[in-house]
């Protein structure tokens, strides 16, 4: 019985290779990749939360030894701890990974904002989406880490875009 199953699979694979048709198994992402991304996202969020009350905000600063960061150096610092390399600066982070719509946000996605005047979509702030309409970010308004709503208030109006880097 096992030999017959093996031969059947070899014949199917050969036919697929000959005709150029991909089997369903070949085009599905492995479940382990999805689990790994979800696990990394939870780790990213936990790490970011663990720095509440410890990190200070300073625009243009990336000083890990003193825990002084701007928004993008903080995301760079946190993601590096799970093996994800982000560049420093919202101008480059907004191009990393893949674009994701606001309605499809997942834990660990980078969320980008325009915080200068009316929202003309010029990105100058970044945070990490936590799920349930919330994100965590290093912000000058509290001189450190804050958890804010993406669904109402100031940040919902300042939202511009998101990228998936996990």
How would you characterize this protein structure?
This protein is of the alpha+beta class and 166 residues long. The chain has a single domain, classed as Alpha-Beta Complex (endopeptidase fold (from Nostoc punctiforme)), CATH 3.90.1720.10. It is 37% helix and 22% strand. The strands form two sheets. Strands 4-9-5-6-7-8 form a six-stranded antiparallel β-sheet. The protein has a three-stranded mixed β-sheet with strand order 1-3-2. A hairpin with a 4-residue loop joins strand 2 and strand 3. The chain is globular and about 35 Å long. The protein starts with a helix and ends with a strand.
Question: Which labels suit this protein?
Answer:
six-stranded antiparallel sheet, single chain, 22% strand, alpha+beta, endopeptidase fold (from Nostoc punctiforme), globular, 9 strands, 166 residues, disordered N terminus, three-stranded mixed sheet
What's the arrangement of secondary structure elements?
Elements: H1 2-19, H2 24-27, H3 31-50, E1 56-57, E2 62-63, E3 68-69, H4 71-80, H5 90-93, E4 98-99, E5 110-113, E6 125-131, E7 134-139, E8 144-149, H6 154-158, E9 159-164
- Major sheet characteristics: 6 strands, antiparallel
**N-C termini distance:** 42 Å
Number of domains: 1
CATH architecture: Alpha-Beta Complex
- Average pLDDT metric: 84
Q: How would you sum up the global shape?
A: globular
Hey, roughly how much beta strand do the residues contain? 15-25%
> What is the count of β-strands?
9
Helix content: 25-40%
List low-confidence stretches.
1-29
Element order, helices and strands?
A: HHHEEEHHEEEEEHE
By DSSP (H or I, 4+ residues per run), the number of helices equals: 6
């Amino acid at each position: 019985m096992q030999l017959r199953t093996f031969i059947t699979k070899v014949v199917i694979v050969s036919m697929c290779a000959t005709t150029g048709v991909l089997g369903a198994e070949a085009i599905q992402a492995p479940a382990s990749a999805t689990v790994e991304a979800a696990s990394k996202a939870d780790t990213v969020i936990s790490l970011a939360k663990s720095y509440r009350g410890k990190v200070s905000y300073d625009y243009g600063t990336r000083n890990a030894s003193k825990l002084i960061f701007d928004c993008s150096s903080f995301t760079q610092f946190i993601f590096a701890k799970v093996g994800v390399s982000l560049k420093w600066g919202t101008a480059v982070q907004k191009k990393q990974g893949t674009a994701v719509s606001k309605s499809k946000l997942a834990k660990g996605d980078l969320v980008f904002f325009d915080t200068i005047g009316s929202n003309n979509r010029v990105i100058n702030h970044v945070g990490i989406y936590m799920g349930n309409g919330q994100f965590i970010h290093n912000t000058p308004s509290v001189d450190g880490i804050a958890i804010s709503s993406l669904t109402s208030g100031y940040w919902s109006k300042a939202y511009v875009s998101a990228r998936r880097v996990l």
